[in-house]
Design a protein that fits this description.
Blueprint: H1 3-12, H2 20-48, H3 50-69, H4 74-82
Length: 83
Amino acid sequence: MYSFPFRSLRTDYGLTCGKWINADVLGASYMLGMLVGSFVIGLISDKFGRMTALMLSVVLVSASGVIGAFMPNAIGMECNQLA
């Protein structure tokens, strides 16, 4: 699903050969962020309505994408994907 961008992240952050575990953690943090985010947005949708939850999701995904484009290292990228 995200193999092409993930290969680019491996080379951009130098996650090759001896640092392969960091690449796996980067992928796991992405999926953990999706899990937690979908649960929280579901609760927000139940309380405030679908449109509010949708707009919040759009803002958060957009902000996360812009911030992620300027991350200088893999640790920052992992934190950004969890948020």
